[in-house]
User: What shape does this take?
Amino acid sequence: MKLTILGGGGFRVPLVYGALLGDHAEGRVTHVTLHDLDAGRLTAVARVLAEQAAGRPDAPQVTATTDLDEAIRGADFIFSAIRVGGLEGRAADERVALAEGVLGQETVGAGGIAYGLRTVPVAVDIARRVARLAPEAWVINFTNPAGLVTEAMSRHLGDRVIGICDSPVALGRRMARLLGAAPDRAWIDYAGLNHLGWVRGLHIGGRDELPRLLADPVLLGSFEEGRLFGAEWLRSLGAVPNEYLHYYYFNREAVRAYQQAEQTRGAFLREQQDRFYAETANPATPALQAWNRTRAEREATYMAENREAAGAGEREVSDLEPGGYEQVALALMRAIARDERTTLILDVRNRRTLSVLDADAVVEVPCLVDANGAHPVSVTPLPYHAVGLVTAVKAVDREVLAAAESGSRATAVKAFALHPLVDSVSVARRLVDAYTKEHPGLGYLRGAGPAPR
Assistant: This one.
């Protein structure tokens, strides 16, 4: 079975390959094709994978290419983890937004919209190529903003594109372990959009244990989301939000923390990864060792500003371990390729799952996965406070998709202005002007021609 990784020169690729090394069953991935526009990055990551595979005669074969059509052709699964504009683009997204006093995070608020406007045209081009060159392939999308990009691709690939995210998995794992249960034995009642969802129930042995967690201040204070949001707020909600909702519930504190930080997250990652790629350009450098060291630093500093603003302290050691999105991706591929039925929280088309959204809206909910793909299951209806956020953000997604298709500056302004974390139409207009100045790829919003395809 052939797996193609788009964004194959990206830093997280060794996590996926490491997960594949542990799979010895019939029908496993035997060939991995890495695609990236940067040949140097491909070389660096290929070195890491070669060191991972050392001494393993059955390790999947790895090839690398800068030719997108070559990478897609013949693939059974395509893992999309591209970053349009690179980390330089992410740092610019953050910088522009913070200068206007609004959030620049890569998937939330102004930064997420800017990233989406850059990424959607490229993702749509990929989807069209897949439909033409590998119509039987399944696309697993991890490209951010994951829900938005998955929805854009689904317009061309239907249900053969599935979005994944490690945040709900990590949250459910933390909560289950806290309550003394194996994560794979718990049913998580989770619903929302990507980076905008809530755990409303945690069922273990047929019993919902979430009320027990919410009633115990010691338990609530012993895991990341409990410290991040505070016991009082979680009890008020009657649910445990995805960590990204900290940007909504404590927006003023988050923006202040990011403004006061020595550098933005994107700038930090850009410098960190530049060092990694520079190190591994030296053939004498142990590439896997350099990658492990860099990954550990990356994970330890994840959402550091939010934790500092909330007084949440350092991340737990268990949260720094691998086993997030790469395990979700592997479980998803196994379920489809081998009909090994499983339940995963995924980003898929809504159908009738959340009644407040239309059938084609991509949502993040538990799904039953089998050889025919991912099927969203019924979930408890969202409370009104969640409905408000979900429908508002989905409306923004739709405006981003419309702007990317039409090249309309007015539609792009509307996307920014409608977001709950952008507080003025005037700010939205200035953001569009600033982002189009920063990013050549957004020239289509200046009347410089249609979005690139």
Remarks:
- The mean pLDDT is 92.
- The first strand starts at residue 2 and ends at 6.
- The radius of gyration is 21 Å.
- Residues 109-133 form the longest helix (25 residues).
